[in-house]
Design goal:
The chain has three helices and no strands. The protein is an all-alpha fold. The chain has one domain. The termini are close together.
Length: about 100
């Protein structure tokens, strides 16, 4: 029972990280197309906060991946890896039950 609870907590944390990755992508697009302005303190604070949370996770993936030019595939790789971890942890918890 404890392993299932831990599996659910890990799944919830993974969902939060995936949400942050998607938020970083959307905010980056809005900044790139000048929909939102980086001179706004609120926007700048959110952008810095999201990057501060995700850069320690994304930088090792970026170092391992080949250079693809202007397209950064590390967020996609992170989402896939997190989903794999979530599946493995859930199945281990179910198997132990």
């Amino acid at each position: 029972m404890l392993l299932i609870t831990l599996s659910q907590i890990i799944g919830y944390l993974i969902s939060i990280i995936i949400f942050l990755v998607i938020a970083q992508f959307v905010i980056g697009l809005l900044i790139a197309f000048n929909v939102i302005n980086m001179h706004n303190d609120f926007v700048q604070a959110i952008w810095r906060s999201v990057n501060a949370l995700l850069d320690p996770i994304l930088n090792p993936i970026r170092r391992l991946m080949p250079n693809t030019g202007a397209i950064d595939f590390s967020p996609l790789v992170l989402i896939v890896l997190l989903n794999i971890v979530n599946i493995v942890v859930s199945n281990l918890a179910i198997a132990a039950y």
